[in-house]
Write a structure and sequence with these properties.
The chain is of the alpha/beta class. It has three domains: 6-305, Polyphosphate kinase middle domain (polyphosphate kinase like); 316-490, Endonuclease Chain A (Endonuclease, Chain A), CATH 3.30.870; 497-683, Endonuclease Chain A (Endonuclease, Chain A), CATH 3.30.870.10. The protein has 18 helices and 26 strands. Strands 14, 18, 19, 20, 21, 23, 24, 25 and 26 form a nine-stranded mixed sheet that branches. Strands 10, 11, 12, 13, 15, 16, 17 and 22 form an eight-stranded mixed sheet that branches. Helix 1 (6-22) packs antiparallel against helix 2 (28-58) and helix 17 runs antiparallel to helix 18. The longest helix is centred in the N-terminal third of the chain and has 31 residues, at 28-58.
């Protein structure tokens, strides 16, 4: 069975992000911001995936899924791809700077300042920036300082006057200021990185040294981000988590990125001090690092340099209503973020917090915003005497500390707080509101593909489903019982619940399409997903293709399946879309002999999601909502502007189709929802 290696597929996905920065049709500042997204993605890749490959090497395991070679050889291939992309990255950055200069926006360095600019920058440095700088002299007699992998550093090389002695020093770039210092002169705008302002004033920082030459070179390094939770039963889970978060900051370095102009003596000193080897761990780069900061690159007040804002739209079914709960009790509603307002989710909880018929609110949380409106609405519910139960997943990577913070706040206010399930991550996105209406209990449930996070809901494309259908809500109740009691598994006839029936039901649905194809009945599978890695599910899709089932896969990230292979996957096509919104929704359509079945889900098709996490998917039974999912998939499949072909060669060619008109699916979807709203407003002119 032919597969693509997971790590190499991920690098191909991140190249699609880099393509957005390279695309001349993307506004200039947005291109710069895509460089920031690419850089941030690469940091996490090294912290998690490359660190995992290094662990495989350390335990002398030779085989790697989807790779014809050893783990050490895979690491070499990863480095080769990263170096190639690094060259593309640097060339793109220079190109964007040149384009900015054509509209009078210029980057300043310590070498091209005018006199007046030098004076302004000097005033800023001495009045503000200097006080945040703490240089560290590197001396063999003293231990090497502990460095943070989210920061960038200037490695300074000082040559003493009348001496061959060289002094090395470190300066951490302060994070208390924006990375970009802006200036305006007439119609021209200028920006200067904090790094270069520090370079400009090295003589003011090292005044006590009599030197003939001083140079500073940027570098950063990345640590293994794995959390190791031991099995000491005498220590609480919270204590283990807090200790593990502290240990993450001391994790093994896995990457050293440095200015390629850094002198060898300085580079080798740093590598040795960080216990890294030249070559496999060291990535030569440009003058600047931590391009993740470029995700916040300024727009200089020029609207044409950024995407036009798309205001989240109202949902036609939720216009002019006094009670969302009343609407959901009578009608299923599908929300599609960020095209439609995430406020509906927040406001539904706010309504439940004060509704006298509501008795309890239960939610499971994977990621929430730092200043979470969702959490504040739940705190209000506690204050109003509602039973509030919050299941926090404390192992949501890189959000552990924020979840710990909110868990403690909720507990202090009187909510019942549960810290996940032993041995299983809780990755589902569930909300359950129980109320008593006319003496009868009624449950309203929300099942989503994305997190209860107002900030990411503005840039992540997700769907969320409100329903009071007892066939669904009673099973949502069972999932919460499982999470609260950790023992009640339950039987699920409608929901797809990992690790209990999700894999079995999905496998059965694919098998049904195989059976139909063999009988000559209508068959077909459409899947929109973030990652497709699980070998068993890939093999089942290969079987379906061989049986005559046509399969369309829209995979945003990693795809280990190889389409278009003779006698294996001839009937499988795969595309991936990268645009201004992050494609995050997961849903599936099975042709089912002309009576299609529709499901949304929180789970990607990966072993961890199907077998090692609590994940929840739900059937969409309402015909109108089914048509909406069909429309979403159809528009995205017709995309010939931002869609790439995903194949064995990982070339990321733009997907072309037979359509004569350009289709950019995200913009087409926004227009689709706006037209729906316009129709509703014509029917309800007072809306």
């Amino acid at each position: 069975m032919e597969l693509v290696n997971r790590e190499l597929s991920w690098l191909s996905f991140n190249e699609r992000v880099l393509q957005e920065a390279m695309d001349e049709n993307v506004p200039l500042v947005e291109r710069m911001r895509f460089l920031g997204i690419y850089s941030n993605n690469m940091d996490e890749f090294f912290r998690v995936r490359v660190a995992n490959v290094k662990r495989i090497i350390s335990i002398k395991k030779n085989t790697v899924q989807g790779y014809n070679g050893t783990a050490s050889e895979l690491l070499e291939d990863i480095r080769s791809v990263v170096l190639k992309q690094q060259e593309m990255f640097e060339a793109t950055y220079k190109e964007i700077l040149q384009e900015l200069e054509t509209i009078n926006i210029y980057q300043l360095t310590e070498k091209n300042l005018s006199h007046s600019q030098r004076v302004e920058v000097a005033n800023f440095f001495h009045a503000d920036l200097k006080h945040e700088i703490v240089p560290i002299i590197l001396d063999a007699k003293n231990p090497f300082p502990k460095l943070r992998d989210k920061n960038i550093y200037l490695a300074v090389r000082l040559e003493k006057e009348n001496s061959k002695k060289v002094i090395f020093a470190l300066i951490q770039i302060p994070t208390t200021f924006p990375r970009f210092y802006q200036m305006q002169e007439g119609k021209s705008s200028y920006f200067m990185l904090i790094d270069d302002i520090i370079r400009l004033h090295l003589d003011s920082i090292f005044t006590i040294f009599d030197v003939k030459d001083m140079e500073a070179y940027t570098f950063k390094f990345t640590r293994d981000a794995e959390l190791n939770l031991d099995d000491d039963l005498s220590v609480s889970f919270i204590e283990k988590m807090e200790q593990s978060l502290q240990n993450r900051k001391k994790g093994e370095p896995v990457r050293f990125v440095y200015d390629h102009k850094m002198p060898n003596d300085l580079k080798n000193y740093l590598l040795k001090s960080l216990n890294l080897k030249s070559g496999i761990n060291a990535i030569p780069g440009g003058r600047y690092h931590n391009f993740k900061d470029f995700a916040d690159f300024p727009d200089f007040g020029k609207k044409e340099l950024v995407y036009a804002k798309l205001k989240p739209l109202d949902h036609p079914d939720l216009l002019n209503t006094k009670s969302y709960l009343d609407i959901f009790s009578n009608k299923d509603v599908l929300l599609h973020f960020p095209y439609q307002k995430f406020d509906y989710v927040v406001d539904t909880i706010r309504e439940a917090a004060i509704d006298p018929t509501v008795k309890s609110i239960k939610i499971n949380v994977y990621r929430v915003a730092h200043n979470s409106q969702i959490m504040n609405a739940l705190l209000n519910a506690v204050s109003n005497g509602k039973e509030v139960v919050v299941i926090f997943e404390l192992q949501a990577r890189f959000d552990e500390e924020n979840n710990l913070y909110w868990a403690e706040r909720m507990k202090e206010q009187g909510a019942k707080v549960i810290y996940g399930i032993q041995g299983l991550k809780v990755h589902s996105k569930l909300l359950k509101i129980a109320r008593v209406v006319k003496g009868k209990e009624q449950i309203i449930a929300f099942i989503g593909t994305g997190n209860f996070h107002e900030k990411t809901a503005k840039i992540y494309s997700d769907v969320g489903y409100f329903t009071a259908n007892p066939a669904i809500t009673q099973e949502v109740r069972k999932v919460f019982r499982l999470m609260e009691n950790n023992i009640e598994r339950g039987v699920y006839r409608n929901l797809l619940v990992s690790p209990f029936n999700n894999r079995r039901k999905l496998t059965g649905l694919i098998q049904q399409e195989i059976n139909n194809a063999k009988k000559g009945l209508p068959s077909g599978i459409c899947i929109k997903i973030n990652n497709l890695v699980d070998v068993k599910m890939i093999d089942k899709l290969y079987q379906a293709s061989q049986a005559g089932v046509n399969i369309k896969l829209n995979v945003r990230g990693v795809c280990c399946l190889v389409p278009g292979i003779k006698n294996q996957s001839e009937r499988i096509e795969v595309i991936g879309i990268v645009d201004r919104f992050l494609e995050h929704a997961r849903f599936f359509i099975f042709e089912n002999n002309g009576d299609p079945l529709y499901f949304i889900s929180s789970a990607d098709w990966m072993e961890r999601n199907l077998d090692k996490r609590i994940e929840v998917g739900a059937p969409i039974l309402d015909k109108v909502l089914q048509n909406e999912l069909q429309t979403i998939f159809g528009l995205q499949w017709s995309d010939n502007q931002k869609s790439r072909e995903v194949d064995k060669k990982l070339k990321n060619k733009y997907h072309k189709n037979k359509l004569d008109v350009p289709v950019r699916s995200q913009m087409a979807l926004y227009e689709y929802y706006r037209n729906q709203l316009d129709i509703a407003n014509q029917i309800l002119p007072d809306a």
